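Forwarding these from the shared drive since the link keeps breaking.
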Amino acid sequence: MAQNHVLIVGSRKTKKLTIVKDIFGVSDFSSFLDKNAKSHTGLIISNGKIVCKYYTADVNIFVDEVQPTLESYNEWLVEFQSSQMKELRDSIQGIILTLRVEILSRHSDQFTQSLQHISDLLDSEYIEDHTGDNEFQWNGFKVVVGIMSEDSSRVDDSWLEKLEEKIPETGFDFVIKKGDSPFACDSCTASGSGDELKAIVQSTQWPEMRLINNKRGKSFKVSETTDEFVANFDEVLSSLHNAKNSASHISNEDEKSVYVKAKVAELLDKLNI
């Protein structure tokens, strides 16, 4: 089993399995889904895969399900911070929370506070476990995916703009998804397409990945790469992290999407040694 693990948490009909399909390339769920199960709680999908121009990686996806209320999400976030969940926190390289954005239209302070606490906890535990490695923060990704539905029309635009400011301040990226277009739609640049999620996932440095040397036309594990390639890759990840911070301050979603796509293309080009 691959050592790359991602946790996806959300209520029903918040596109959890759509993300598994679009981002991690899983098209057949028959061997993972229990037809008699009433929820996706505890679902483990072991054949996820990330394939891009610069590397490939096998990924296991853990899926958990909560009730479609803000209270249920808050309870899960508190539980995730418990000592009993440390083994899970240590094993994952990414966490994706999916929710209908209208549940955040009121009383979201506890939710954002919990996100901040989780970011701080992941950082502190990672630094503690990597003493002497000059690591200053957790190197995985954290994303809140806000699903816009017909009910989302009740969400005031000004409040949505506040969420787009508040959530990134916690260390979590905030991706808004409207409509039924795929998350991995390369041609989608409009606000709400959700295509930013693909860039976030692909910019992650996975524990196990096969980097592709384009000039030589072959792939190899990270442990087998040259020092030059590893140095370039680390530089890209550091630069991309800075670019994400810059993008969080762009209020216009269309401009932010264009900026992210351009920056990702520019930085990944550095890997073509």
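-- next protein --
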Amino acid sequence: MYKTVIDAVRDAGVLLRNNCDSKIRYTLKEKQSYVTAFDTQIEKLIIKTLTAVYPSHTVYSEESGIMPNSSEFEWYIDPLSNTRNFIHGLPGFAVAVGLIRNKKPIFGVVYDPMLDELYIGQKHTGAFCNGKKISVSRRPFGEHAFINVDWQKRRGKAKIEEGVRLFTSLGRRCTVRAIGSVALTICYVAHGRLEAMVNNYSDRYAIVPAWSIIKEAGGEILDLDGRAWTLDSESTLVTNQKSTKAILACI
């Protein structure tokens, strides 16, 4: 049903992979966020695809903003999730596109071009990586758990201090990492590679594409107060469900 969108995302990822080793020029947006010509080029290509196939749908994109329509269907585009890794020639970046209907997830695709891993989630259909069904881990929070903890320094001193506190507190109980790409990190929880992602911020452009994937894989997505995540949430907790209560108690 969404083959055209999936093909566009994969093609965009190939473009990134073929240019990852080059010297990437970039500019700084407000709040010290990086943007490259590839961000805008890929965004335009995906917007063109979406508006051609789904002309009545609303499209939200990280660089261009909103292309409004009075529609219950809304697309979110993160053309380059983790631009910073890309401009340094490092893996761990992705192209991500997701669809919600009446603010609920129904489809998402996240492509990691360096590992050639294509994650897809569709309501009532399941979550998949390269065509193979995936599911969250059954490992509880504790010594053997592996989780992602991240924060963004551009969000101010208080958020930095809170992020360091979370990293330290959770790091006493399990192994923690900061991977970078929010979209990919959520997919790793869905794939059972991580037990959770704890971020003291929220990025709807990266989260919406992975929303269907984590839900269909058996995970859940909340804010750090334990409430169901929404587009207006200010923090993000993605878990395999088994670790949720213990993580909330720890933070």
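The chain has two domains: 3-133, 146-250. The first helix runs from residue 3 to 19.

- D.
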